[in-house]
């Protein structure tokens, strides 16, 4: 078990090295540059040269890269060209927002998806079944930013039921402890702050949760349909077990194995930043930070955020693999 | 046609058979397809302590018969007719709740493939105790104690440890023993074993059969063996019903059947088994064709297209009626117009030899 974890963590090293080289080269290949973005289109060549010199951008690429790498191993990704603040600090401020959003989206997707998929399978061939199949197809097919925009327009702009941008109303002067706004509100007993932050999660969370929801419905349904025809379910029925026991212990337990994998993978994807959804809702998570950094040619933020997110993604997948062993005794790692 | 097919001694021992199956029919209906009759008027009975074999090739309806008895066929798209009585209680058409009370407690079943028949994510212990907890008023602790005892009785060494293990950690023979332990947990009156040894090694097969025989003798359980393996029949069954295309075509006591098979199909089955006492290199005699080469019973004898003894009147067009199942001497029934004949005193003639 320990060896398995260590091996997976060691695999991270080549992945991160390769990714950093790619990122570095790719960002420098973008037209324009940080100086142009920072000083405006009408900056004089002298001003640009001075700016580049100041930030070490006049050095050869490999020098820039090695310098970046040397600091990155100490978790120092430099300062944002836009705000001048350390990238690590910005990341720690932004990531909690994305984590909250991901949790909301996944709870929504799991809470609706598993029961719906299960019911669709139980009533195989009914209108509910057909509706869930068609619905989940739509869910995967609709572009997320389009859905996000639609939700915002309807429920925030037109109906005004829910807030449509930000993580919290500005007028609420909430105390920050962990930067998880909902959690902070609960910890400081500022209930209205917690509730307000929660309502800000609803629309982007639903938009973000739609694809995982659709996938979970489809996989749950297919998996339940498979499992009810398994021999061991027939054995359970032959033992005369109550229908509820057969369903709980023998059908659902096994049917959820593939669903668990999907949930893990989707969580990893959402955690690594929902650039489009966060931008539509001006949600201050890592996704909108990346979006802004691209426009500002903010190399330090882009490099730092993307590398850290890659680590997060790999770690989440490692967790999924470990937890899968807990669910299925056949794949328990030694 | 003779409907009642209760061997005289079966009734004598207890006064009444455990299982009585009368004119059982099972029809599968799928939208857009012809209804398919998988079991077509099957009748038999099993007395306490008796072992009855249902024998035939795959697709002959023997497994469907057993699932129909247990009430395990899906309700949608399947029509079950006739009568199945367990200790006199009618099971056909009984509500699901009533059947669940009987299954596992009064009637139990052992399936063909022990690995796929066990839940891979639940420990063996839970899978044994859940039967006990469902049907008996036991505490978890008592149920575990009984489960340990059961595993020990079916010959699983170190039962306390095995209870905590998962199916994939057990060998094939162990798994089948565990399944038998689950089936016997509540001391059922009727046990149906559907090809219980097919997925096992030959040496393990013999052990499992021996175990089943001991259990039947000890507890007086009525045992129905579903099998295509005549070796199993020879070793275990008191009475044998040979099935073909959804109908019983020959019924006899084991010794009678092996000594003097009357249906050419039964004869063919016996002749297609390799014999150790035969001449080395002697050709086997398989039944020609396959179980798919059948004609509907309504048009005559379903086996006729593969039968070496078939004559014109095996077809309804000529004879005017379907071949009936008829009295064929004491304790025997036969569905055949041109059965295999034997001399009055079969001096030295072996069954297989005669069948050839």
UniProtKB/TrEMBL annotation, chain A:
<dbReference type="GO" id="GO:0005886">
    <property type="term" value="C:plasma membrane"/>
</dbReference>
<keyword id="KW-0812">Transmembrane</keyword>
<dbReference type="GO" id="GO:0055085">
    <property type="term" value="P:transmembrane transport"/>
</dbReference>
<feature type="transmembrane region" description="Helical">
    <location>
        <begin position="305"/>
        <end position="327"/>
    </location>
</feature>
<comment type="similarity">
    <text>Belongs to the binding-protein-dependent transport system permease family.</text>
</comment>
<keyword id="KW-0813">Transport</keyword>
<keyword id="KW-0472">Membrane</keyword>
<feature type="transmembrane region" description="Helical">
    <location>
        <begin position="133"/>
        <end position="155"/>
    </location>
</feature>
<feature type="domain" description="ABC transmembrane type-1">
    <location>
        <begin position="95"/>
        <end position="324"/>
    </location>
</feature>
<keyword id="KW-1133">Transmembrane helix</keyword>
<feature type="transmembrane region" description="Helical">
    <location>
        <begin position="101"/>
        <end position="121"/>
    </location>
</feature>
<dbReference type="InterPro" id="IPR045621">
    <property type="entry name" value="BPD_transp_1_N"/>
</dbReference>
<protein>
    <submittedName>
        <fullName>Peptide/nickel transport system permease protein</fullName>
    </submittedName>
</protein>
<dbReference type="InterPro" id="IPR000515">
    <property type="entry name" value="MetI-like"/>
</dbReference>
<feature type="transmembrane region" description="Helical">
    <location>
        <begin position="255"/>
        <end position="276"/>
    </location>
</feature>
<dbReference type="Pfam" id="PF19300">
    <property type="entry name" value="BPD_transp_1_N"/>
</dbReference>
<dbReference type="InterPro" id="IPR035906">
    <property type="entry name" value="MetI-like_sf"/>
</dbReference>
<feature type="transmembrane region" description="Helical">
    <location>
        <begin position="197"/>
        <end position="217"/>
    </location>
</feature>
<keyword id="KW-1003">Cell membrane</keyword>
<dbReference type="Pfam" id="PF00528">
    <property type="entry name" value="BPD_transp_1"/>
</dbReference>
From TrEMBL, chain B:
<dbReference type="GO" id="GO:0015833">
    <property type="term" value="P:peptide transport"/>
</dbReference>
<feature type="domain" description="ABC transporter">
    <location>
        <begin position="19"/>
        <end position="270"/>
    </location>
</feature>
<dbReference type="InterPro" id="IPR050388">
    <property type="entry name" value="ABC_Ni/Peptide_Import"/>
</dbReference>
<keyword id="KW-0067">ATP-binding</keyword>
<protein>
    <submittedName>
        <fullName>Peptide/nickel transport system ATP-binding protein</fullName>
    </submittedName>
</protein>
<dbReference type="InterPro" id="IPR003593">
    <property type="entry name" value="AAA+_ATPase"/>
</dbReference>
<dbReference type="InterPro" id="IPR003439">
    <property type="entry name" value="ABC_transporter-like_ATP-bd"/>
</dbReference>
<dbReference type="GO" id="GO:0005524">
    <property type="term" value="F:ATP binding"/>
</dbReference>
<keyword id="KW-0813">Transport</keyword>
<dbReference type="GO" id="GO:0005886">
    <property type="term" value="C:plasma membrane"/>
</dbReference>
<dbReference type="GO" id="GO:0016887">
    <property type="term" value="F:ATP hydrolysis activity"/>
</dbReference>
<dbReference type="Pfam" id="PF00005">
    <property type="entry name" value="ABC_tran"/>
</dbReference>
<dbReference type="Pfam" id="PF08352">
    <property type="entry name" value="oligo_HPY"/>
</dbReference>
<keyword id="KW-1003">Cell membrane</keyword>
<keyword id="KW-0472">Membrane</keyword>
<dbReference type="InterPro" id="IPR017871">
    <property type="entry name" value="ABC_transporter-like_CS"/>
</dbReference>
<dbReference type="InterPro" id="IPR027417">
    <property type="entry name" value="P-loop_NTPase"/>
</dbReference>
<dbReference type="InterPro" id="IPR013563">
    <property type="entry name" value="Oligopep_ABC_C"/>
</dbReference>
<comment type="similarity">
    <text>Belongs to the ABC transporter superfamily.</text>
</comment>
<keyword id="KW-0547">Nucleotide-binding</keyword>
């Amino acid at each position: 078990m320990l060896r398995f974890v260590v091996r997976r963590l060691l695999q991270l090293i080549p992945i991160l090295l390769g990714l950093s080289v790619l990122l570095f080269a790719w960002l420098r290949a973008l037209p324009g540059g940080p100086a142009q973005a920072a000083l405006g289109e009408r900056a004089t060549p002298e001003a640009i040269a001075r700016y580049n010199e100041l930030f070490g951008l006049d050095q050869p690429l490999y020098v820039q890269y090695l310098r970046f790498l040397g600091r990155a191993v100490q978790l120092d990704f430099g300062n944002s060209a836009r705000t001048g603040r350390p990238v690590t600090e910005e990341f720690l401020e932004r990531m909690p927002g994305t984590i909250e959003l991901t949790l909301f989206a996944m709870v929504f997707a799991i809470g609706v998806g598993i029961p719906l998929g299960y019911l669709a399978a139980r009533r195989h061939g009914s209108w509910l079944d057909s509706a869930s199949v068609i619905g989940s197809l739509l869910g995967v097919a609709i572009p997320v930013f389009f859905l996000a925009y639609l939700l915002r327009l309807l429920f925030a702009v037109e109906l005004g039921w829910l807030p449509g941008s930000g993580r919290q109303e500005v007028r609420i002067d909430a105390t920050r402890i962990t930067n998880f706004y909902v959690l902070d509100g609960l910890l400081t007993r500022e209930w209205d702050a917690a509730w307000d932050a929660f309502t800000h999660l609803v629309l982007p969370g639903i938009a973000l949760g739609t694809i995982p929801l659709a996938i979970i419905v489809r996989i749950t349904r297919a998996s339940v349909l498979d499992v009810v025809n398994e021999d061991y379910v027939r054995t359970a029925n032959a033992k005369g077990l109550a229908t509820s026991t057969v369903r709980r212990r023998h059908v659902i337990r096994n049917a959820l194995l593939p669903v668990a994998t999907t949930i893990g993978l989707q969580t990893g994807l959402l955690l690594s930043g929902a650039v489009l959804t966060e931008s539509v809702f001006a949600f201050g998570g890592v996704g909108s930070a990346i979006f802004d950094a691209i426009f500002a040619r903010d190399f330090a933020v882009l490099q730092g955020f993307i590398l850290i997110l890659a680590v997060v993604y790999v770690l989440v997948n490692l967790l999924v693999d470990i937890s899968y062993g807990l669910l299925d005794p056949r794949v328990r790692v030694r | 046609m003779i409907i009642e097919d209760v061997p005289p001694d079966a009734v004598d021992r207890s006064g009444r058979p455990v299982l009585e199956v009368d004119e059982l029919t099972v029809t599968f209906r799928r939208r857009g397809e012809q209804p398919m009759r998988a079991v077509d008027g099957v009748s038999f009975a099993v007395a306490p302590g008796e072992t009855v074999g249902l024998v035939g090739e795959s697709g002959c309806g023997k497994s469907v018969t057993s699932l129909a008895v247990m009430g395990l066929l899906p309700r949608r798209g399947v029509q079950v007719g006739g009568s199945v009585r367990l200790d006199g209680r009618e099971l056909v058409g009984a509500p699901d709740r009533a059947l669940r009370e009987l299954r596992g407690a009064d009637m139990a079943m052992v399936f063909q493939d022990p690995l796929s028949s066990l839940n891979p994510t639940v420990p063996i212990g839970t899978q044994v105790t859940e039967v006990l907890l469902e049907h008996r008023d036991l505490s978890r602790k008592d149920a575990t104690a009984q489960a340990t005892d059961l595993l020990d009785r079916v010959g699983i060494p170190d039962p306390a440890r095995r209870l905590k293990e998962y199916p994939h950690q057990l060998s094939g023979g162990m798994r089948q023993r565990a399944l038998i332990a689950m089936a016997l947990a509540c001391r059922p009156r009727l046990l149906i074993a559907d090809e219980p040894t097919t997925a096992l090694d030959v040496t393990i097969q013999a052990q499992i059969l021996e175990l089943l025989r001991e259990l039947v003798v000890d507890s007086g359980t009525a045992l129905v063996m579903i099998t295509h393996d005549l070796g199993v029949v020879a070793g275990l069954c008191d009475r044998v019903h040979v099935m073909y295309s959804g109908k019983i075509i020959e019924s006899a006591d084991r010794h009678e059947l092996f000594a003097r098979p009357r249906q050419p199909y039964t004869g063919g089955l016996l002749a297609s088994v390799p014999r150790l006492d035969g001449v080395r290199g002697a050709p086997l005699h398989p039944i020609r064709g396959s179980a798919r080469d059948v004609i509907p019973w309504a048009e005559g004898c379903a086996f006729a297209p593969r039968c070496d003894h078939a004559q014109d009147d095996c077809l309804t067009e000529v004879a005017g009626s379907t071949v009936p199942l008829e009295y064929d001497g004491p304790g025997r029934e036969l569905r055949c117009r041109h059965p295999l004949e034997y001399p009055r005193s079969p001096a030295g003639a072996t069954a297989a030899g005669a069948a050839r």
